[in-house]
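Record pair follows.
FIRST:
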Amino acid sequence: MKKAFSWEAFEKAPIVSIFRNLDSKDLIRVASCFQEAGISTMEITMNSDNSKNDIAHLVKEFGEVLNIGAGTVCDLNGMHEALEAGAQFIVTPISDVDVINYCVAQKIPVFPGAFTPTEIFKTWQMGATMVKVFPAGSMGPAYIKDVLAPLNDISLMPTGGVNASNIAAYFEAGAKAVGVGSALVPKEFLNNKDWKGLTNHLHAFLGAYKKFADKQTS
């Protein structure tokens, strides 16, 4: 039976961690660090070596406690390969109509990439779970705020350039989630196999988001 995406876990930590060409053994150790730190959502890019095997292995080992998905999905073939491996959600760098339509029809969370207000609006109209604003790094949180001024009903997930120093600013600008790459899992921890250090880093990164979240509920 296919393991379902956990919205409860995602909403506690709306951070999608992006992995490209990480060693398969390291991915398993990283997933354990994620579970311990309370960050729930891992995206394995389909242009990584061994991506399908990595997704399948992670879903088997962690699919009940973590959300394991596929990124860099650009067409239906790639999407089907990812889903056959067990991916629980789909992320794309672009807005592909066929991929979005299939995921919407099958109730699979899908986070398609878009950049301009027109692209973002059209992608949202197609039924995207959230629109991945990519690349967001060059524009920063101000761009998210500007887009949401007239398009305030759209759920945005800025991706690119997000780190512990600016994550709160993205959420303050109106983002519903963020996509994060090496800032969340720095190479220094991987190179040194410092899993305790990585777990502490993940705790601190999540803490930067929780400071924002706590302000909203206080």
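SECOND:
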Amino acid sequence: MKIALVGDRSPSVRSHARIPVVVEALRERDGIALDPYWIATTDVSGLEGFDGIWIVPGSPYRDEEGAVEAARVAREHRIPLLGTCAGFQHMLLEFARHVCGLDVAHAENEPDAREFLLTPLACSLAGHEGRVRISPGTLMEQIMGEPVTVESYVCSYGLNESYTRTLAGHGLVFSGYADDGAVRAAELPGHPFFVGTLFQPELSGDGRRAHPVIAAFAAAVARQAVHT
């Protein structure tokens, strides 16, 4: 089962070093053998041929449009998608632009733009852990099995809360929040798997057991591969 790891691979990004360890853990502990391919944001052609797409951390990406295009392909072709940290941010950016019709930007990528969907966090979460409250009745609740979880972050940007109503009005569900109400996870109902988290589940523990979000993504990829 082929998955695309969309992002600009770098030895300096912790999650990039951890993801292969997690993929091996999925094979050994969960019996799900994923065949990962690193895809640079500068060349995302052919993503329709993958069983799953994971937009990985590591912003700013070399090509914002490449990350956005990966999310669009996954959404429109109903390919299981996981977006973590910057991947989550660009998943939201794609949805805002192509589903909601918003002319919005990521402040890290276009600091001179007029309207920002993603803005600097009041307090950077880089290198921190924080509580995430899971929304009842969501896929995230099914995945996590508990109302509150503590997760790892390496990020400084998040969703501009003034756009949450518009995104939700077009079908996106916000399924995880910080204690102060800031969005930490989102999903798209009716899609085989379209989930994003501002936190980085790949950094959970020592990597020898896949975080529930990653295990759920892998299971969705396996289901997708059976039916295609």
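COMMENT: The mean pLDDT is 95.
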